[in-house]
Amino acid sequence: MTDINAPEATATGEAGFGDYVALLKPRVMSLVVFTAAVGLLLAPGALHPIEALAAIIFIALGAGASGALNMWWDADIDAVMRRTMRRPVPSGRVEAGEALGLGMALSGIAVVMLWLTTNAVAAGLLAFTIFFYAVIYSMWLKRATPQNIVIGGAAGAFPPVVGWAAVTGGLALEPLLMFGLIFMWTPPHFWALALFLKDDYHTARVPMLTVTHGRAATRRHILIYTALLVPVAVGLGFTSVGGAIYLAAAVVLNAAFLLGAIAIARRTEAQAEADRYIVEKRVFRLSLWYLFAHFVALLVQAAANPWLPTPWIIGG
């Protein structure tokens, strides 16, 4: 989930506890924790409640570590973007070295403790997730290619897979489709944001699609990726974690998101400028609820499945 509100600067300019919390990107972490918890809860088998809670905590620490490492590396970019310039590192309240040290320490703690609490597969996936976000996305893709958010979206898609693996010690179709849901959702989500924050990315020289290919091309790409997202999201309903409730929610959510993407694709920049990007902002807000609602629907479906058998599911 994208944080569009930077933290307020402190009056003294000195770091407080809240600044170190902000380094962990708590809004992003909340989505990571939620999707990981859904993956864990839906996985066949069970962990002891204490083990399950510990697993979620260590996955959250891993997400926080990724955020701190990202803020350390991206301090120069954050300093020139309006929505990020008041973050702890570019504002000077937290030293870059502190962010790096915190990120590295939390990474080690999260991976080792998840291994001890659950299994090596889950720990390995968490380690790869941190590496992917901090190194492959932040250090390489973000500044190198307009496909940065497409490929880099994998980092945010791994948490439900990690949660599933924490219980089962392996992978299956269901967590891979959860991964696909988040992965395919990420580009239209961020590109909708980029349409009305276009100057930020241009100023920071980040090769976002709006900068390299223009906003007309970005609008078309939003529609293409949303269309590709729909079968992944709906297809999850035909697996062991899906059913009638999830499918109903998915159909409504994806119809709304697809209609929003079509509306964006049909607009010109002149129209968008005239109404201050009202449609783009509306679709962006919808995208925030879209992902959350899908995972809530999975939980509701899981609670109802004992009373609502779904014989059409894959493997059912």
TrEMBL record:
It is found in: Cell membrane. It is an enzyme of class 2 (transferase). The chain crosses the membrane at residues 28-47, 53-73, 94-116, 122-141, 148-171, 177-197, 222-238, 244-265, 286-304. One of its GO terms (molecular function) is protoheme IX farnesyltransferase activity. GO terms for biological process: heme O biosynthetic process. It catalyses: heme b + (2E,6E)-farnesyl diphosphate + H2O = Fe(II)-heme o + diphosphate. Its EC number is 2.5.1.141. The keyword Membrane applies. GO terms for cellular component: plasma membrane. Its main location: membrane. It is a multi-pass membrane protein. Converts heme B (protoheme IX) to heme O by substitution of the vinyl group on carbon 2 of heme B porphyrin ring with a hydroxyethyl farnesyl side group. Belongs to the UbiA prenyltransferase family. Protoheme IX farnesyltransferase subfamily. Interacts with CtaA. Carbon 2 of the heme B porphyrin ring is defined according to the Fischer nomenclature. This is Protoheme IX farnesyltransferase.
